[in-house]
Amino acid sequence: MTNVLFAAGDKNWDSYQTPLKQAFSAANLDIDLRQDHDPAETDYIIYAPSSDLQDFSPFRRCKAVLSLWAGVEKIVTNQTLAQPLCRMVDPGLTQGMIEWVTGHTLRYHLGIDDNLASQNGEWKPKAAPLARERRVTILGLGQLGQACAKMLAGIGFQVTGWSRRQKDIEGIICLSGDAGLKTALKTADILILLLPNTAETENTLNAETINHLPKGARLINPGRGTLIEDAALLSALDTGQIAHATLDVFRVEPLPQDHPYWAHTKVTVTPHIAAETRAITASEVIAENIRRGEIGLPFLNLVDRGAGY
Ligand code: NAP
Predict the structure, then answer these.
(1) How far apart are CA 178 and CA 217, in angstroms?
(2) Which domains are delineated in the chain?
(3) Is the pTM of this model over 0.90?
């Protein structure tokens, strides 16, 4: 019997209990899944940022902490965590991000807002260019950045991606390093941020880097709020350097009621809903990692604690 502690909160317990048990059974795992295992007897911990669990030191037998979230900034610096940490790479979450990013990219590309705003009895036809004439840049070419890049390139957009380590992806212009960032920004009619929140990525979009964008660029941020220097973005929206921003993530969440983003006419706020972990597919990922741990195979989606993601 393998003891799995579900430390991801009561709300998640309601939605995950049944899918996890089904996934464990399908993987032929004999698991005692509970919200209250004795730390000394816990083999795995399922974790979410909303968890009350902050001190991992009593869990000496625990083989891995399995996050339900893709972004791990809230746990990666926890000094009591000596166990391997796996983040969530969930096909359901990835599909959700592809759909959200594609939808918002097409909103900008097709000028959907202009059409809605000009429904006033005046017949003024103005067709959008084809996607192949629109340049889209994605900062971050990990699980989500790559999946979105491939979908957008499949539609026909000219897609450039930027990452820490150089990539080679068919149909995508891949860049890295400081010079690569400059080039990636210069060619961004639409800029999408899919970087993790780390010390290195904080304020990637700041007063200086914003100036590399073509005037009137559109911004979509489903990554993390810390990627943007908010004052610089507000000022770029005022000058028209950035024409519009769609923001899903913020430094403080929920976004405070008096934050200028809420009322800004050039900002669309969405409440961190770009891509949710889906209980059924995520439970299969958790089960697979426990199966691997139990037979001594390397865990999937291990976090690089040094890099912070
Ligand atoms: P990932 O697979 O870890 O990919 C991260 C990408 O960022 C990688 O390409 C990585 O480069 C690049 N990167 C990291 N640090 C960098 C740096 N200093 N300079 C340049 N590139 C850097 O993560 P993911 O699964 O794609 O998720 C990305 C982020 O999306 C998450 O961390 C989370 O913040 C966010 N997210 C948001 C939602 C939402 O609902 N809004 C949902 C899920 C996730 P390498 O390829 O070289 O490692």
Answers:
(1) 20
(2) 2-90+277-295 (3.40.50.720), 91-269 (3.40.50.720)
(3) yes
Report the alpha-carbon distance of residue 182 to residue 136 in Å, rounded. 14
Q: Which atom of ligand 1 is nearest to the CA of 166?
A: 47
Which token pair is 193?
A: 């941020």
Which DSSP state fits 8? S
What are the 10-residue block averages of pLDDT along the chain, 309 residues in total? Answer: 97 97 98 97 96 95 97 95 97 97 98 94 94 98 98 98 98 98 98 98 98 98 98 98 98 98 98 97 98 98 96
Determine which one of 87, 218, 224, 244 is catalytic.
224
- List all residues 6 or more positions away from 172 whose beta carbon is below 8 Å from its beta carbon: 141, 146, 149, 150, 153, 159, 160, 161
Provide the 3-class DSSP secondary structure of residue 43.
coil
Contact 292, 300 (CB under 8 A): yes
Q: Is 48 in the pocket of ligand 1 (CB under 6 A)?
A: no
- Does 225 sit in the ligand 1 pocket, CB within 6 Å? no
Reading the block at residue 171, the tokens are: 């149909």
Interval 244-254: pLDDT, tens: 999 999 999 99
The H or E element spanning position 160 is strand 158-163
Q: Quick count: other Cβ atoms within 10 Å of Cβ 18?
A: 12
Residues 6+ apart with CB under 8 A from 227: 139, 193, 195, 197, 201, 202, 203, 204, 205, 221
Q: Is the CB of 194 under 6 A from ligand 1?
A: yes
224 in active site: yes
Q: CA-CA distance, 70 to 76, in Å (whole number)?
A: 12
* Residue among 98, 204, 269, 309 whose CB has most ligand 1 atoms within 8 A, to mutate: 309
